[in-house]
Every structure is written in C-alpha cells, then in structure tokens.
C-alpha cells in the first residue's frame, strides 16, 4: 500500500537528481573553466571514480583483485536490468490476470448474491412486490396471496422454508461482503501496484539509459575522436546550453594547440598562456564528463535500487492481500456456519417431527388408504361379477331358459332395487375414510337437473349443484363447467332461486315414459322451476327437506330474522333469480377424516354426521326399536306421529306423503326442542297402542320384523297409518263420518286444553281436525286452546309448547 508513497518519493528523488545534474552543468559553466591540476589529465580516464573523494575509492591492489561496482555500466548490469524488467513485466501480467479474474468473480458474485437473495425471498414465500405493483395489485391483494401461499405450503413447511430463506439471506449478505473485500484487495491494489511499478521502472530505465549513453558518448569521443570529437560533442552540447558551446570551444582549442605543437614552440611566451587556457578549458570539460559519468552511475543505482525494492514490496503486497483474502474466506464460512448453527435447534425439532410423521404415515395412513382402495376395488369387482351374471341371465333368457325367465323381475322399481341402483353411492361412501363437512347453514346440497325454460337452450336439462340453507335455495352458476369447487372462473356466482319461506314444492307424477323424480319449486313471483333428482333417495331428501324447512320457518320464524314472517305474501325484494356477485369464491371445504370405528360411517353415508345431542340421545333411549318393524336403534322420527322408525321403514313413511308422516333424521336433520319434546311425550310405546289397538281383531296380519322386505313393510305401514286399518273407534257405532270427525275433533280440543299429547294423538289418528273450531269457546281452535294454557306455578309440567308443535305438525294452522 505504501508503494505509492514510495513511488512519489522515488520520482521526487529522480527529479531532484535531474536538477542537480542541471545545476552541476550550470555551475561548471559559471566557474568558467577552473583550472584543474594538470596531473589529472594523466590519470587514467577509465577510472574517474578513483580520483574523487565523493566516490568510493578503490585500493591500489584493485587492479589485481578488482571488486566490481555492480551498478557501473556493464553487460552484467544491463542483463540484470533486462531480467528484472522482464520479470516485472511477468509480474504485471500475473497481477493483471488476478485483477481481471477477481473483477469477473465479483461481478458474477454480485449476480449470485442477487440470485441468492431472490431464492431466499421465494423460500420465505414473499411476493415480488415490484412486479406485483406493475401488475396493479394492491398491498392487500399481495398479503392475501402470500397468506394463500403459506397455507398451500403448510404451516410447518412454511416455517422451515422461512428458516432456509433467512439462512440464504445471511449467506448472500456475507457473500457480498466477502466479494467486496476481495475486490478491494486483489482487484484494486494489485493492479495499481503492478501498473505503477512498471511505469516508474520504465521512466527510471530510460533515464539511466540516457545518462549512460550521454556519458559514454562524450567519454568515448574524447578518447579516440581527435578530429571530429570536439565538433560532434560541441554540437551536441551546444544544442542544449551556452555553457555547452563554450565547452565545445575549449575542446577545439585544445585539439588545435596539440595539433600545432611545433609551431607553438616558436613563441614560447604566447604559447604558454594559450596552452594554460586550453588546459584549463580541458580540465573544466573533463570535469563535465565526469559529472555525466557520475550522474549515469547515480541513475543506474536508482534503477537497481528500485528494481530490488519492487521485489520486497511485491512480497509485502502479495502477502498482505492474499492473507486478507484468506481471512475474508474464513470469515465468510464462519459467518455462514454461525447463521446455520443458529437455526439448527428449530431445524432439528422440525426434522424430528417430520420423522415421526413419516413413520406414522407409513404405519397408519398408507395402510388405511390401501384398505379403502381395496374396498373400492372389491366393490367394483363384485359389481362386475353381477354384471357378468346379468349378461349370462340375459343370454339364457334369449335362449328360452324357462328358469331364468321365471326368475326375471319385470317391474322397473323391482329391477332397480335388485341391482341396488340407488344404493351404490351410499354403499361406496360407507367405507370412505374421508368426509366433507357441509358449509355452515347448509341444510341440503347436491346435484339436481334443472329443466331449461328457454326454448333456445341446447340442453333441456342442466346439471347444477343446488344448496338450501336456512333462508333460501341457490344453485351454482357454472357456465359450462360443472365442477363445484373450482377456485376461479366457473362458479363465480350463485343464483338464488327463492326464499325458503316463499316456496312450495309440487311433486310431479311420472307420466308414461317421462322423467322420474321430478318436482317443481313454485314461488309467488316466478315461473315454476322444474327439477329432477338423480334418484328416489335424493328426491325425498329434497322434497321433504324443502317442505320441512318452509314449515319450520313458518311456524318458528327464524331467530336470525325475526321480521321475516312479516314478508309473507309480499313479493320479496330480491325476487326470483338473483345473481350474487359477492359470492365470488367458495370457501375452501376441509376434508375430514373419519376413524375406522366411527358408527357414523355406516349409518350416515349421505351427509355429515352430527354429534348426537342430549335430546336425540334421550329420544333414542326411550325408543330402542322401530315402531313398525322392531329393528334396533331407529334414528328416524315421524314428527307428526311422534314415533321413531328405522331407515327402511322411514322410506315407506316418506312415500306416503307428509300428510300421513313427516319423517326426519335424528342425525342428519336438526330437531328442535319442541319437536323433540313431542317425541319424548309420545314415543313408540304410547303411540303404537293407538294405531294397533284393533290389530287383534284383524286376521291375517302380522307385524313385520326387521328382516322384512320392502313389500311387507309397505303393506303394513300403509294399512296402519294411511288406511288406518288397525284403529278402534269406540262409541262410534251408528255415527256418520262427519259426526265422527266432530267427536274426535272435540276430543282433540279437550286434549289440547289439557296438553295431553297421547289423547291428542288418539283423537288425531281417528280423524280429529286440528282446525276444528269450538263454538262453545268463542270459535277457538285446539291451537288457541293450548296457547291459552297458563304457565303453572311450581314444578308442575307444562307441555303447551309440545302440544302446539304437535298440532302444527299435524296440519294445524295459526
Ligand atoms: Zn322399521
């Protein structure tokens, strides 16, 4: 580093020396040819150094054992200088190469640092904000995207990547710091050193050469140039200064004097003066030659001194920079290691967790996947076997196989049941490990075929995902794509069909070969919307579900919308099909895993299992078997009959229509406290005696068992509830039908007044009308009657709410 200073010093010295030379020559001319001692002329001119006290003197035996001054002009010195200069030039090349490559490294290193930083940013799940701003994204949108990214990567993995990103960030920082430091040592000072040295040396060299040449030229000409010596030297000197001119003249005179020696002796007096003048001029001139020789020696010495000093400074320079670079490298690695080490506790933690999860994955999850897959394969396999059997049977029938012909079912319903057409989705879902929770508020959802009302429409029926929540029925607008959970594009909006409270379901009977499972949503303001369910099960779920939701809203209102009932009969503000632009994206649906032991899997393939409420538990404990077939653990309730039935019987109940039986699932539907209370007060044990009171009087009837087929159940349930075949009508002999209704309606009214649900059930079963008005009590209906029952004081039970609920379920009107 200090080389530059030295350089300056050196250059200064060189300049000073030059000035000295100049002064010396000036002085000599000013002194105007001081007469030197004549004996000097006799001294050997080859060794001028030996005669002056300022130069190192050689001893007298030097001639015999000469110790040569190295900087004296000699081939050795020249060769040394050439070698050193060549070596310096090689050094410069080497240094330049290092510098160039250092610069290349630092440039690519800067790129790498930037790349590392970008990688770090990606690992930390950052967003390229600059680009995003160019794309016109707001900071909120960027935040949302980042949050979505983090979620997609997963919390723990995002944490791990964050660690990695931080480490990379630090590495990039240290990397850049290291490269900057290396660039300032290897890149800058090396080059500066080598370049300036070479320049200085070349100046010194040319100075030394010039001085040597000048000295040699003068001296050589003095030695052997008697004729042209003075002229040429004089010319050369005259070219520079006036003093040089005088010097040249002195030589000339001296030569002339010597040349005309014989003639001069003729006049000894004159010649003595002239000779002395010439001699003194010669002395002066020779001193000038010696000055030049001395100067040349000085310059050569300076050159050599510099050349040798370069070697030392080269060593300092290289050592300093190389060691500092090594330090930087070592620092860089140390800092990287520290940065990574700091992370290692949390990394270790994540690693251990991951190892555990990996084991768990291999030991539990993968086998259950395999189990599920095997179950599905088995299911497909058994269906395939049945398909083969069916085609064989078909072939046999075509060949006239009487047995097969006999065995072949002929009714479509029976065939569908035989092949279990409608059960397949349930059967497949039953073994599933994964279930989906419905979105909050959703009561029913699923595919329905929507009949196109437009004549221009290409397709008569469009498959749409329908949803019913507490308030309304919607379907997702797909525009050609029926996948319901696409995040963008399709399903950008949902279309509201109608408010639950304003719509009626009209069941459409099958006419000839027309479509089955069709129903219409009838609203006050729009054309009826015709829908087709993909099977009887879905059909019932939708028809009953919509009806019950509507009734529920009518009777109970909605705690969230207390004024809704006031809208009755009024056209809703958002009438008909309203596109809700705010519904831009479906909230993500979480897949829920069900444990193998969960009983819900078997019983509720259709929907999300709900945790059994205490009320549901109580109802099920009170009614351990199906009211109609005796199957254990029935979980379907008939709200208007006040009984529990099994899933098989519930199907039959449903088929009778809601005026006979309103069926709800205890597990899939939500049962209100009042509805639950009705079943608690009634129940199979109290209701069956009413409906089966006259069974003993009938012949040929036997109650079905849990193994009964559908036909058996249907016959029994229809006879019992629809045709009322097993009821007893005591004390009705001779009464007309109107009189009977009057009698049991009055009985119902009385039961309502007492809030006696069992009595009310008996009266209703036998034809009592909940709309009957009592002329003796101001034309009140049973509903009015029970509503007037005062809340008793103390602990006495009060069932007015259950009574009202029961009447409403049986068609009572407010
Ligand atoms: Zn049953």
Automatic annotation (TrEMBL):
Q: Name one Pfam family in it.
A: PH
Superkingdom, taxonomy of origin: Eukaryota
Low complexity bias locations: 47-60
Keyword annotations: Metal-binding, Zinc, Zinc-finger
* The UniProt record lists the keyword Nucleus: no
Q: Which InterPro entries match?
A: ACAP1/2/3-like, AH/BAR_dom_sf, ARFGAP/RecO, ArfGAP_dom, ArfGAP_dom_sf, PH-like_dom_sf, PH_domain
**Boundaries of every Arf-GAP domain copy:** 613-734
Q: Which segments carry the region annotation Disordered?
A: 1-66, 559-610
Q: Where is the composition biased (Polar residues)?
A: 563-584
A single GO molecular-function term is:
GTPase activator activity
Q: Where is the composition biased (Basic and acidic residues)?
A: 9-18
Residue intervals of the PH domain: 441-551
Q: Which PANTHER family match?
A: ADP-RIBOSYLATION FACTOR GTPASE-ACTIVATING PROTEIN EFFECTOR PROTEIN 1, CENTAURIN/ARF
Give the protein name, as stated in the record: Arf-GAP with coiled-coil, ANK repeat and PH domain-containing protein
The organism named in the record is Fistulifera solaris (Oleaginous diatom)
